[in-house]
Write a structure and sequence with these properties.
This protein is of the alpha+beta class. Helices cover 52% and strands 9% of the residues. A hairpin with a 2-residue loop joins strand 1 and strand 2. Helix 11 crosses helix 13, helix 13 packs across helix 15 and helix 13 packs parallel to helix 17. The longest helix is centred in the middle third of the chain and has 32 residues. Pfam families: p450 (PF00067).
């Protein structure tokens, strides 16, 4: 027999034996489709719509099942009960961050989003406390958002009712809110360095949501040895980090230890306090990664939701009209919207919730990992196993939200028209790893959207019925299709 054939058969047998031992030995993993050697179940997953593939597999294997992305087992949790049981009831055990090789190459376990263990706890605690000190969730940050909303309205007026792509205008507003907290500065909407900085984040979201990244994460060797869009992503991240490093160096030159101006100053002061600690987590590299995470989480998520939200309002003018009627009745035309108005605007709040539910921004969430061996629903999941939680299966649950594929604010209204909360509403995930900026994002979405609708009628270039709201990417993030819109002053 040909030696090459013998080698291939031998390797295949070893791989199959290894997979069998993984599935039946120490880690009595949940059932799932039989993986192929090396490839695993990658051929059974549509890289353009991962969440849909997982939903189809759940019909055959139940709410808890195993897929192999390459040779690596990944446990999938599908449906509200399984997701809540893991992330809330067993929150500490499921609080690890799962493998995400493309990001691991750029962050090396630093920052907040992709860090683990004590490092994650230290960095998250410091960041949340510092952001709160600078107004997160308080009146002072509301003032900043209101000011930025007024700046956004001024920029939208400059379009003179002409068709425009709202991507960067809607990106500048939330980005400037983050800038004011991190850099103690906001930027002009025409600042070319600022726009280029934001363009890198926007581009990276699209790349991270592309099918190629699923393949790279499943077969990490491709990242180092093959060309592809991941190279552009790595280059963009390097640019962003260099930009942030320059800002850090500027802060170091003008730092007043007794009067911190922003997040960077607070981190630099903490670095100075820990100078003699050999085990300190407070380093310049850690600061750069945390600021990168804060911009990524605090800018693109909100701007993408706003962009997708305006597209849905163009598609459903009857919904837009009801929101504007509520704005006229509660706020009027002569003052800026404020958070106090929210409790008197149940329909608007229902629309904001429905936008987030419908667009399903993070279909499969960021990967989690178990921090120790755990018996979960009679299965034994070994420490370190990657966990995927399908947020789509929660946000689009047909029992909780009748006709989940339909955009309907009624999903969050009771029979009397009052706003109705739902435990299934978890666009920011849930449990220990819930997005630290959830409060800020909710405040921004309400204030930006109501301010826009207070000042403008929205006009589509095509018949609203012909608008396509299907995401162009549906991997890491659901990215809305490009569209043109006219902002007609009221």
């Amino acid at each position: 027999m040909d030696p090459v054939v013998v080698l291939v058969i031998s390797l295949s047998c070893i791989l199959l034996l290894s997979l069998w031992r993984q599935r039946s030995g120490k880690g009595r993993l949940p059932p799932g489709p039989m993986p192929l050697p090396i490839l695993g179940n990658i051929l059974q997953i549509d890289a353009k719509n991962i969440s849909k593939s997982l939903t189809n597999l759940s019909k055959a294997y139940g709410p808890v099942f195993t897929v192999y992305l390459g040779t690596r087992p990944t446990v999938v949790l599908h449906g509200y009960k399984a997701v809540k049981e893991a992330l809330v009831d067993h929150g500490e055990v499921f609080s690890g961050r799962g493998s995400f090789p493309v990001s691991d190459r750029t962050r090396k376990g630093l920052g907040i989003i992709f860090s683990n263990g004590n490092r994650w706890k230290v960095m998250r605690r410091f960041s949340v406390m510092t952001l709160r000190n600078f107004g997160m969730g308080k009146r002072s940050i509301e003032d900043r958002i209101q000011e930025e909303a007024r700046c956004l309205v001024q920029e939208l007026r400059k379009t003179n009712s002409s068709p425009c792509d709202p991507t960067f205008l809607l990106g500048c507003a939330p980005c400037n809110v983050i800038c004011s907290v991190i850099f103690h500065n906001r930027f002009d909407y025409k600042d070319q360095h600022f726009l280029y900085f934001m363009e890198k984040f926007n581009e990276n979201v699209k790349i991270l949501s592309s099918p190629w990244i699923l393949i790279c994460n499943s077969f990490p060797a491709l990242i180092d040895y093959f060309p592809g869009s991941h190279k552009k992503l790595l280059k963009n991240v390097a640019y962003v980090k260099q930009y942030i490093l320059e800002k850090v160096q500027e802060h170091q030159g003008s730092l007043d230890m007794d009067n911190p101006r922003d997040f960077i100053d607070c981190f630099l002061i903490k670095m100075n306090e820990e100078k003699g600690n050999q085990q300190t987590e407070f380093t310049t590299e850690a600061l750069i990664n945390i600021v990168t995470d804060l911009f990524g989480a605090g800018t693109e998520t909100t701007s993408t939701t706003l962009r997708y939200g305006l597209l849905l309002l163009l598609k459903h003018p009857e919904v837009t009209a009801k929101v504007q009627e509520e704005i006229d009745r509660v706020i009027g035309r002569h003052r800026s919207p404020c958070m106090q108005d929210k409790s008197s605007m149940p329909y608007t709040e229902a629309v904001l919730h429905e936008i987030q539910r419908y667009i399903d921004l993070f279909p499969i969430n960021l990967p989690h990992a178990v921090t120790c061996d755990i018996k979960f629903r009679n299965y034994l999941i070994p420490k370190g196993t990657t966990i995927i939680t399908s947020l789509t299966s929660v946000l689009h649950d047909s029992k909780e939200f009748p006709n989940p594929e339909k955009f309907d604010p009624g999903h969050f209204l009771d029979e009397s028209g009052k706003f109705k909360k739902s435990d299934y509403f978890m666009p920011f995930s849930t449990g220990k790893r819930i997005c630290a900026g959830e409060g800020l994002a909710s405040m921004e979405l309400f204030l930006f959207l109501t301010t826009i609708l207070q000042n403008f009628h929205l006009k589509s270039l095509v018949d609203p019925k012909d608008l396509d709201t299907t995401p162009v990417f549906n991997g890491f993030v659901s990215v809305p299709p490009a569209y043109q819109i006219c902002f007609i002053p009221i």
